[in-house]
Amino acid sequence: IRRRRGAGTVVASPEDPAGFSQTIDGVDALLQYAKAAKLEITRFGPLRSSDRDKADLPTTPAWIGITGLRRAPRQTRPIALTRIAVRADICPSQDDIVAWGGAINTLIAEHSGVTAARIDQTITAVGLTRRDAEALEADAGAAALCTVRRYLDASGALFQHSISLHPGDRFSYAMRLDRE
């Protein structure tokens, strides 16, 4: 039961809580998501040309594609379907990624020295395709947030790209912007 002044009393849904909320106030907070929402890898291997084209990645160098579902603590359904592309020459192994349990770009930095000097992120609203909805245990056409992140090194070269689909009823972004 929820009570709100001026709105009365309502019976709340007995389902999972509203979902996962990502608070962003800097790069470290952005990367914390990968620790809090564990990635279950469902595909690991050479990036498909169709996925490379969707992400607008160059044909060279070679890329490794990683697809997986993110799950948050105490959530029964996945909170995101994530497709990641990593430059093949610096991509950790699938076993290393699973054992790491954190942000892949941080693992890349530890193993190869390539660090994210800049992360560009775009968030858009989309409807889930039937295939993506099935993976997310959601309804086809349901509203979702699509986050696209591009990780660039100090020279401005792209080394990692990700696209994540978050069902609208399971995820929210909260941002804090302070005036300097």
Characterize the structure shown.
The protein is α+β, with helices and mostly antiparallel strands. The strands form three sheets. The chain has a six-stranded antiparallel beta sheet with strand order 4-5-6-9-8-7, with helices on both faces. Strand 1 and strand 2 form a beta hairpin. The longest helix has 10 residues. It is globular and about 40 Å long. It starts with a strand and ends in a 5-residue tail after the last strand. About 5% of the residues have low confidence.
Structure described in brief:
By secondary structure, the chain is of the alpha+beta class.
Mean pLDDT: 84
The computed structural class is alpha+beta
The largest sheet is:
6 strands, antiparallel
Q: What series of H and E elements makes up the topology?
A: EEEHEHEEHHEHEEE
Percent strand? 35-45%
What multimeric state do the chains show?
single chain
Count of helices? 5
Low-confidence stretches: 10-18
Count of individual beta strands: 10
Shape: globular
Percent of residues in helices: 10-25%
Radius of gyration: 18 Å
Spatial order of the strands in the main sheet? Answer: 4-5-6-9-8-7
Determine the N-to-C terminus distance. 41 Å
Task: Give the helix/strand layout.
Elements: E1 2-4, E2 8-10, E3 20-24, H1 27-36, E4 38-46, H2 49-54, E5 63-71, E6 80-87, H3 94-100, H4 104-112, E7 118-127, H5 130-136, E8 143-152, E9 158-167, E10 171-175
Parallel strand pairs: 3-10
Antiparallel strand pairs: 1-2, 4-5, 5-6, 6-9, 7-8, 8-9
Keywords:
40% strand; 6-stranded antiparallel sheet; two-stranded antiparallel sheet; 180 residues
